[in-house]
Amino acid sequence: MALTREQMAQRVARELKDGYYVNLGIGIPTLVANYVPTDMDVMLQSENGLLGMGEFPTEGQLDADMINAGKQTVTARTGASIFNSAESFAMIRGGHVDLTVLGAFEVDVEGNIASWMIPGKLVKGMGGAMDLVAGADNIIVTMTHASKDGESKLLPRCSLPLTGAGCIRKVLTDLAYLEIENGAFILRETAPGVSVEEIIEKTAGKLIVADDVKEMTF
Amino acid sequence: MAGLDKRVATYEQALEGLTDNMTVLAGGFGLCGIPENLIGEIKRRGVKGLTVVSNNCGVDGFGLGVLLEDHQIRKMVASYVGENAEFERQLLSGELEVELTPQGTLAEKMRAGGAGIPAFFTATGYGTPVADGKEVREFNGRKYILEEAITGDFAIVKGWKADHYGNVVYRNTAQNFNPLAATAGKITVVEVEEIVEPGVLLPSEIHTPGIYVDRVIVGTFEKRIEKRTVKA
């Protein structure tokens, strides 16, 4: 079975470490916040200018001046700080964020990522995604392995305009966890009940199956 | 102290001198911390051909979106413009020019503009369409692109509290691009929820020192919420 969105978030959360500063993108990455282990202290960065994003507010706490990068109303946790957008991106571009999780349309064997523009369709803009992928060392891309009509999103070469070049090393799809090394996807883990053959079939870019490939457990 | 008293009484005075084809920098992220009433005054004045620099362009009927209704914006410099149907229509029909700029690069362009730095190198956007036509340099084995600073004829800013001297503090994440825009306007206009007596704001808590600010006005704000999310 392909992973659910919740399971994908759960799997990403296993990459968290106590004391990490983490930026979570919109969509599945946002759900990772629900799976931070209770024995860990992790600070979430929201690129509009909040370090220490807390839970959604109660009706009583609702504050139009308190939002996250997805423009949702949020709260600040104990230990949080708030700052301007240049300061926020100094943290990101200066490599101070320990882990960045974001979605994508495509990734390729060279670590290129395309996530912001589909030519001929509406162009909404890149927001902070180009800064995030250029600034972080440790990035996990979350996406479905193939499009709805079965086209692989793990490619020899991205077909869409790039968000960043050569910056992605880790990809979690609904079928597998893969790393990118030396011009190939390395299959490290399969989703429960998903065969290696199915992943090979749905990966257009060069794929190497790790000797110690594991099945994820939840 | 009259020479350093930045207060003005009306929105008309606040944007005195704004004319067609000027560049306006606007603070705000989404609908959070946007200078609602200064945008309204731009609409009332009917100036056209503006270049507007702001992270977003409001929504239909609110925020900078209202300036699209009468085609007052010729060019928009922004990082994300996906919340606005009229924007999309004008973009696709060629009525509106758009320069999409990564959010961190946009913030840094304003910061640099205000700080007298004409351009800077950044890794953001290297290898992407954003790098087209831009100088590339290698530092310590990594490639960077040259991005030029932005300044504006006017900066329109939303603060929380200000004093007569134009010292400003922002509230929570309504800070965002506001302090950066404030530094980079030839004429910087700040609208706030409250003007306090000099000395009330502690020197160490000021976000935007008054040296950057030309005019301060107090207004009332709708503060519309774009995505209202509450705990279940």
How would you summarize this macromolecular structure in one to three sentences?
By secondary structure, chain A is α/β, with parallel strands linked by helices. Chain A contains five helices and 13 strands. Chain A has one domain: Glutaconate Coenzyme A-transferase.
What this model shows, in words?
The complex is a heterodimer of chains A (about 220) and B (about 230). Chain A is an alpha/beta fold and about 220 residues long. Chain A has one domain: Glutaconate Coenzyme A-transferase. In chain A, about 15% of the residues lie in helices and about 30% in strands. Chain A contains five helices and 13 strands. In chain A, the strands form two sheets. Chain A has a ten-stranded mixed β-sheet, sandwiched between helices. In chain A, strands 7-6-9 form a three-stranded mixed β-sheet, with no helix packed on it. The longest helix of chain A is centred in the first third of the chain and has 9 residues, at about 5-15. Chain B has helices spanning about 10-15, 35-45, 65-70, 85-90, 105-115, 180-185, and strands at about 25, 50-55, 75-80, 95-100, 120, 135-140, 140-150, 150-160, 160-165, 170, 185-190, 195, 215-220. In chain B, about 20% of the residues lie in helices and about 25% in strands. Chain B is globular. The model of chain B has no long low-confidence stretch (mean pLDDT about 95). Chain B is built from six helices and 13 strands. With about 230 residues, chain B is α/β, with parallel strands linked by helices. In chain B, the strands form three sheets. A seven-stranded parallel β-sheet of chain B has the order 4-3-2-1-8-11-13. A three-stranded antiparallel β-sheet of chain B has the order 5-7-6. At the A-B interface, α3 and α4 of A face α4, α5 and α6 of B.
List the helices and strands and how they pair.
The complex is a heterodimer of chains A (218) and B (232).
Chain A: H1 5-13, E1 21-24, H2 28-31, E2 43-46, E3 50-53, E4 76-82, H3 85-93, E5 99-103, E6 106-108, E7 113-114, H4 129-135, E8 139-143, E9 154-155, E10 170-173, E11 176-181, E12 184-190, H5 196-201, E13 207-215
Parallel strand pairs in A: 1-2, 1-5, 5-8, 6-9, 8-10, 12-13
Antiparallel strand pairs in A: 2-3, 3-4, 6-7, 10-11, 11-12
Chain B: H1 11-14, E1 23-26, H2 36-45, E2 50-53, H3 66-69, E3 73-78, H4 85-92, E4 97-100, H5 103-115, E5 119-122, E6 136-139, E7 142-148, E8 152-158, E9 161-163, E10 168-169, H6 178-183, E11 185-192, E12 194-196, E13 215-218
Parallel strand pairs in B: 1-2, 1-8, 2-3, 3-4, 8-11, 9-12, 11-13
Antiparallel strand pairs in B: 5-7, 6-7, 9-10
